[in-house]
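Appendix B, record 7
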Amino acid sequence: MRPSDRHDSAAFLAQQPALDVQAADWLVRRQDGLDDREEAAFQQWLAASAAHAAAYAQLARAWDGLDALPNTTIARLRPVPASKAAPSPPRLAWLMQLCQPMRLAGAAVVCAVLAGWQYWLHQPVYSASFASARGEQLTVELPDGSTLRLDTATRADVTLYRQRREVRLPEGQALLTVAPDKTRPFEVLAGPVRVTVLGTRFSVRHTHSGLYGDGANVQVEHGIVRVAGNGAPLVLTAGQAVRSDAAGKLGALTNATPEDALLWREGRAHFNNTPLRVALAEFERYGPTHLRLGDAAVGELRLNGSFKLREVASFRRALPQVLPLRLHEEGGSTVITAAP
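Structure tokens (predicted):
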């Protein structure tokens, strides 16, 4: 090994996390074979910290998975310039040849493999954004077999990686039927909360108006999900739901009926002691209502009942019958005021 090569390897290792370098050194030494004393030292190093064991396991997985890397990625890991490189032997063989002569160079190569492996794992294999218009619902099938059903005025950003699947829900509501894949957890990021599943059917809502305000709402129909926000995470099973506030603080688990899950898919909403201003905002998600509150006090009146969100005319007719209100036309809008 030339002094310049030794210097390059040492300089590279100096830039890597110390724990990764230690794990790489042990991996190279174990490839060469350890005697009983060295094996005992290795086991002692593993047992000294959970971080040691995790670092070594991660590096070993990357090493074992080297054949899955594309040739272009492998080429970038070679420690010699392409102009001076000899014809390529099989990918694992050339790395083993480099590791055998000297532990310094071997550790540098193993760390480079880890960096390349992690880079490759974190590259998306699929990425797309979907959006439903105001008043429409949209169903999307993903390449992994999962499906998304988007409620009105909803946007979902989908990214599939080799080791995980991710959906970001910046606005709206969606029903997710997740294809089981234990090797790739499915995560949904909805405002302040993160929902993690392996395979299930659940709905997530994160809107800035209407019911639930700026928080998020998660309801599970089948399977199990883990919901993390600001505080201790919660595990939900079928028939359970949880809400968060805008800061991600999770509320108590509640029971959810199948009828609750069907409401928005049928374009309906159930108002239970809901402020009128919130009910109007929920209708506005589906389209312009041309309804306007005459004053703030009217908006705080409490509304109960189930309504079809696309039938604004029926809702307008029902308002004076269920609340002490008066409606009159003004400038192209219907103004809602308190009844005399």
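Remarks on this record: Residues 267-338 form a domain with the Phage tail protein beta-alpha-beta fold fold (CATH 3.55.50.30). The chain has eleven helices and 18 strands.
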